[in-house]
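Appendix B. Worked example

We walk through a single record from start to finish. Start with the input: the chain for Single-stranded-DNA-specific exonuclease RecJ, Weissella muntiaci, length 768.
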Amino acid sequence: MISARNKWVFPKVDQPEKVKEYVESFGVSELVAKILLARGYDTLDAAQAFLAPDETQLHDPFALHDMDRAVERIMQAVDNEEQIVVYGDYDVDGMTSTAIMTWALEIMGANVIYFVPSRFDDGYGPNLAQYQRLVAEGMQLLITVDNGVSGFDEIAWLNEQGIDTVVTDHHELPAQLPAAFAVVHPRHPAGNYPFGGLSGAGVAFKVASALLEAPADEVIDLAAIGTVADVMELTDENRAIVTLGLASLKTDPRPGLDALLREAGSDVSKIEAATIGFTIGPRLNSLGRLASASAGVELLLADEMDQAKQIAQTVEKLNAERQTLVSEVTTAALAQAEQYVDDPVLVLVGADWHEGILGIVAAKVVEQTGKPTLVLTTEGSQLKGSGRSTSAFDLFSALDPHRDIMTAFGGHAAAAGMTIPLDKVVAVRGALKEAAQTQGIASAELPELRIAATISGKDFNRENFEALRVLAPFGQGNPEPLFSVELSGVENVKTMSEGKHLRFTGQTKDAGVPVVAFGFGNLADDLLGRFQELKLVGTMSENTFRGATTYQMMMTDIQAQGSALLDWRTTRLTRQTFSQNASYIFFQKSMFEQARQYVQSGAEALWWEDAFNKTSIETMALVDLPDSIEQLAEVLRFVPTKRLAPIFYAKSPAYLQQAPQRSDFGKLYKFVMGHPNFAFKAQYDDLAKYLQVERNTLTLLIQVFLQAKFVTIEDGFLNGVADPASVTLEDMPAYRDFLNRRELEQQLIYSTTAELEQLLTDLSKQES
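Next comes the structure step. The output line below is what the pipeline stores for this chain.
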């Protein structure tokens, strides 16, 4: 069995007239119409606005709280040639915000410089030491982008120095806002801006638009990058920003992004939201994680291609270094996680793990284990790191009451950063374990996946793929439609990236579909087997290779009923047979004693009765034949296993043995009666040749005669019994055992894989 990581939900749209209206009004497919309705676009106007985002959907920037004051103060600074500092952040949203605001001020002729703090030296947000340095160097107006609302004390100090601050931010608002000259925030409690989901870059874009008295089209591409990279909801104004920004990137990419994408091997003309999420974002973030984010702003503002190309090459190298670091630390973290299998929340500690990538590693561990995770690295006598969580566990509320055992802490329900004294890590583990129990993490429901429809292999085609594009750009709040597919089997299972990911072909009732499954590499062995039922959930993707375009599924989740069947049946046992990491179950004592020594490290040999002491088995390899189907059924019913690997070795298969005929019995009896005191052991082969039967058939004939009392064997001599009692030879136990053995072997050894699968499935379901 393979358990789904999520709860699959199939929303029903029972509005045939509405579906028809959308199909006729917008020219969309019936499937797209149903998706629109399922996502709440239940009027023609709402659907039209969603399907055709444009500049008219950009809200008035002056509707933002304090925008008029911000513009007035900035214009004053420009007119008076005051030294303006744009203070940003080291992530992608912070870099793009900084670039947008700096560009707008430069267009206006302002005396402006920008500063992006260091993740390692300065940390996130307002930093008094840096503020003091900037004031000493002549700063007269501070404009924060993608940060600032948490700087109550720092901005109070600036006020004491006579330095005004314009805060532009989108993060959670604290209970006490800073006394800045202006606080521009889409969710300001004193404002009523119609959309609260702007990114930091989105807010900077609105300020730039207000300063220029027109939408700042020249930097809408940067606003789109910040929006997607910061995982903001792609609805309302954000959808318009990202749609228009992507169009700008495709038609007229700025030198820095053009160079960045070329170095990454991406086709600029095919850029979409996913390109930001998986190509642009990670590369820009690598600067903030491993070097200086200022170079990212420099790249985004570069006018000359030569300059852009040089920075882009550096970014590409840093990104490769980041990928290597993430891979190495993730491998080490997952190995350590195996030591804490009983912990509901993982706290993983490494020496010299690079601080800049710990959040990524934590997210990958959560993805693989399904458990909230802190990943920490040693820094002197402290541990510093990041945590990521699941929808079932509020990480912030779990740790917030325990600030007394941490040096520093901040974050929200899904992510947090912290510094912990080395001697407090046990206490933190205990606090998280207690919080997990309080929050009921063990009984929490799985996160939901909303499935658009159940489709088949033939539905993965150009027509459907292009029909779905009208719903793009995809991202948070507007995910790519998910589809479920029922498979009859799996072929060509291959791992990628050192076993982390999978590629295979899923067989449906009408066609095969290529499947790519990132992060599911651990299922490679499972998928080599067969299941009673196998279902996938994923998105539809286009893949072009060597000029040929195909359509595939990008798998999001998988579930399978029944144990995976790995058909390991063989006619020969070797050391290699016992080299797999499995529990080898033996039914025959002689075979158990003989072969158990060959079971290699990491595996185990079990006498079948001892298997019942196991709570579960990952891979159950059935080495030899049971005495009966009933004995096998008992094991299958009461010993849970994830994978079933039948070997069913038989040294001398009865199924291949010549079955004795009545004439064979008569011929043997006649021979015995005519040859008293026959030394049969010495002349066994001669006798078999005379009777024209195989040796093992002769053995069976003699066993039946002994049980029927037709012959005797004394001191190695075979003699017939005169006038034996009349019996039915086929009723003798030896003959019945032979027939039963033949039937058992036919079912377990000489059946097809599909027939064996059905039999084992039926046996595992039988009532005890």
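Two observations about the output. The CA atoms of residues 100 and 219 lie 6 Å apart. The radius of gyration is 36 Å.
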